[in-house]
Specification:
The protein contains 13 helices and 10 strands. The protein has helices at residues 4-11, 25-34, 41-52, 68-71, 81-87, 118-127, 146-165, 184-204, 231-245, 262-278, 292-302, 309-326, 331-336; strands spanning 17-20, 61-66, 91-95, 100-102, 110-112, 130-139, 169-176, 213-214, 252-255, 285-288. It is an alpha/beta fold and 337 residues long. β9, α10 and β10 form a beta-alpha-beta unit. The chain has one domain: Aldolase class I (TIM Barrel, Alpha-Beta Barrel), CATH 3.20.20. The strands form 3 sheets. It has a 6-stranded parallel β-sheet with strand order 1-2-3-6-7-8. Strands 4-5 form a two-stranded antiparallel ribbon. It has a two-stranded parallel sheet with strand order 9-10. It binds 1,3-dihydroxyacetonephosphate.
Length: 337
């Protein structure tokens, strides 16, 4: 069996990223409805089966994150999802958090829940083939209260420690949301504060940083901000925020897409890698763990119609290929840009 640092390193191996296909039943149902597909357990299964069976997916993707419902399902007429993933050389991850709830006395902040019974749930998920896990905390820059930062950082660290104790690699996901009209400078400051708190708690909890993957937001302006920075500025701000808080022992940073299009997220990831290489290589691999930026085009093309499967899979593969290429950009690309 591979050690936690070996699994973490494999998740961020050169040219590889992670496909986040772990939307909760509620979120996935809304997205299916918006794409004109009736939201049922079967349609959610068929959609995730389409994603996983995309030809060539494992050239770009080391792991796929599933929700509990999908981990308990099988490909139509085939093996369970975790076995089907393993047969394709793709590691199975599981979203273990239970979503967010209002945090008292925090001016409207939210805390991610799901620590109760997590030890037993992790043992069960591990037995069913999950080798890594995900927990997402969200931070809205407008009016962010220190209690929201502290409570979420603490919960992320408790989760990460429980994962490692169960032999599961934790993906640690603190997301500063794009919602709002905040500037890139505000996103930078909030991201730096959040990352510092998260790594303080991870170290206090005894988590082996070589056995985690960090999944942060890129440092970008809020979606409602008129002044949207280009990739070069996003790269500088993102690397500064990471550099101030993320120890070199962390093997990889796999960014979420957070509502960016595939083109935008890949342009920013390319610039981040080019900038990192230009200033002498970051200590961590810099790759992707995108959800919407990989899958949205495929969902729209599919429409729940089996005859559209090939077209949908081609779109997913193209988006994954672009993200993989962006994760391998070097300083030469920046010089030529
Ligand atoms: P997006 O890339 O769509 O933000 O999703 C990533 C994810 O896993 C959110 O938890």
């Amino acid at each position: 069996m591979q050690s936690l640092p070996e699994v973490a390193a494999a998740l961020v191996a050169p040219g590889k990223g992670i496909l986040a296909a772990d939307e909760s039943v509620t979120t996935m149902s809304k997205r299916l409805e918006a794409a004109g597909v009736a939201p049922t357990a079967e349609s959610r299964r068929d959609y995730r089966a389409l994603l996983l069976t995309t030809p060539g997916l494992s050239s770009y993707v080391s792991g796929i994150i599933l929700c509990e419902e999908t981990l308990g399902q099988a490909l139509p007429g085939g093996p369970p999802f975790s076995e089907a993933a393993a047969a394709r050389g793709i590691m199975t991850g599981i979203k273990v958090d239970k979503g967010t709830a209002p945090l008292p006395f925090s001016d409207g902040g939210f805390v991610t829940e799901g620590l109760d019974c997590l030890r037993d749930r992790l043992a069960d998920f591990r037995a069913r083939g999950a080798v890594f896990a995900k927990w997402r905390a969200v931070f809205r820059p407008a009016g962010l209260h220190p209690r929201t930062v502290h409570a979420n950082a603490h919960a992320l660290a408790r989760y990460a420690a429980l994962c490692q104790d169960a032999g599961v690699v934790p993906i640690v996901e603190p997301e500063v949301l794009m919602d709002g009209d905040h500037s890139i400078g505000i996103c930078h400051a909030v991201t730096a504060t959040v990352l510092e708190a998260v790594f303080g708690e991870l170290e206090a909890m005894g988590v082996d940083l070589a056995g985690i993957v960090l999944k942060p937001n890129m440092v970008i302006a809020g979606a409602g901000c008129e002044d949207q920075a280009g990739p070069a500025k996003v790269a500088l701000n993102t690397l500064q925020a990471l550099g101030a808080a993320v120890p070199a022992s962390v093997p990889g940073v796999a960014f979420l897409s957070g509502g960016q299009s595939n083109g935008q997220a890949c342009a920013n990831l390319s610039a981040i890698n080019a900038e990192a290489a230009a200033v002498g290589e970051a200590p961590w691999r810099l790759t992707f763990s995108f959800g919407r930026a990989l899958v949205s085009d495929a969902l729209l093309a599919w429409h729940g119609v089996p005859a559209n499967t090939g077209d949908a899979q081609s779109r997913l593969a193209a988006n994954c290929r672009r993200a993989s290429e962006a994760s391998q950009v070097t300083a030469a690309a920046r010089a030529g840009a």
